[in-house]
Amino acid sequence: MKPLMTRLFLGVVYFACALLQTAAGAEKPAPYTLALIPQRPPVDMYRDWTPFLELLSQKSGLKLELKVFAGMEEFEEQLESGLPDFIFTNSTQAVQAWRSQRYLPLVRSSAMLKGVLFVKKDSPVTEVNDLLDKKIAFVGAKNLCSVFVRDGLHHDLLAYSFIRLYEGSTQNVFKTVLLGKADAGVTLDVNLDTASNEIREGMRIIYQTAPLAPHPLSAHPRLPQDVRERFLETILAIGANPRHESLLKSIGLAHPIPADYHRDYRSLEEIDLETLTAETCASEP
């Protein structure tokens, strides 16, 4: 009987251990996902964001996982569905994410942005209305600078009386204007400020928008408040260390401050985003 009792006892012990291991595995938290607006090719997004994410995970104790996308459509489908835990979007997407899922902006760079309309330095164009029926190059219909500047032009009477060329990237916009294939181009002031000397010295700004709060990092409201607070406080602590200044600047979070939807982004609800982002590319006549 003793061998039988021993085997039964060991069986119970093994069974109990298996249950404990299963329970421990089930309780192991899944990583929180951070979905990034596709500003550059995925490999570049991984390169720029991975060091920041590793530092944030280490200091906050939160396990975080990057989600990058090759195109804007897939990214915006994720926002609409509310699948990512955290998101990094442009300002107009922050409005759309608030409307669809109540994503909460947590943190942003303290540096405000402006959309700018520029021409070649030697262009005869001196004011906005000189561009009536002319060609203006944009990155795309959904990019922040495109939406914000087109909305501003509409209110400044130029409306839509110009030919829109969507070039796919900021560099292509610069190139299109420099080569004379477009009469003007649109970008963010920060992009023009950090462009090459040839581009900066060869362009002239003729219009700029009001200041705009930059891209926020937002959290889905399903996340516990303590998780959201730890995420925010850790980023602010990282930003307070001058050693991390270049790291944060490379991802658009230089000198981070707390974000607030109503203060920073609610005014953008007045923009007709649906119309402006639904436009298709205009081709040359």
From TrEMBL:
Q: Does the keyword Signal apply?
A: yes
Q: Which residues form the signal peptide?
A: 1-18
Q: Which UniProt keywords apply?
A: Signal
Identify this protein by name: Phosphate/phosphite/phosphonate ABC transporter substrate-binding protein
